[in-house]
Amino acid sequence: MSLEQLWAGWRHEYVSQATEAERATADGGGCVFCRLASSGEPAEDNGVVWRGPSTFAVLNAYPYASGHLLVLPLRHVGDLGELDTAESTELWTAVRGAVAAVQRAYRPDGLNVGANLGRAAGAGIPAHLHFHVLPRWGGDTNFMTSVAGVRVMPESLPVSWQRLRRGWPTH
Question: Which residues are catalytic?
């Protein structure tokens, strides 16, 4: 098999600018997760489902599936190695809580749990570490996703928030 190369020299400028813009906000300035972290107690209007001393869980505003949660530290850190022991412990406990809430609220056939660490790994907001927890069902990819590249959400974010809040192991 031969490997053809596609030259896209123009991308260097784009990638460099995107990287520099990201580094400019590395301190948390303009970070949507930092705004959510400081938005107060869990509420339907901020999407925060659960909040602990150093981590919180929030609905993904652009979910892959209904019930898609993000679990993240309150502190603006982009790397697992930047977490102290207490943050790391609470973060994993919160991921486990999110899994339990999704299972109680949706009774899925399976779940995806993961983190995209860094822009190259697919992180949309790489400067603020976060885990994804989302329900999956056998056959949950339909023609809209396969053919049109569109996802159809069967419920609104406020309804998802209510279901997950009720399903969280402890409030």
Answer: 130
